[in-house]
Amino acid sequence: LSWSEALLLDVFPPVTLEINDSEGHASSSHQTLKGTSKWATSLENLLEDPEGVKRFREFLKKEFSEENVLFWLACEEFKKTQGKKQMQEKAKEIYMTFLSSKASSQVNVEGQSRLSETILETPHPLMFQKLQDQIFNLMKYDSYSRFLKSDIFLNHKKSEEQEENSPEAQTAAKRASRIYNT
Question: Which residues are bridge partners to 117 per DSSP?
Answer without folding.
Answer: none
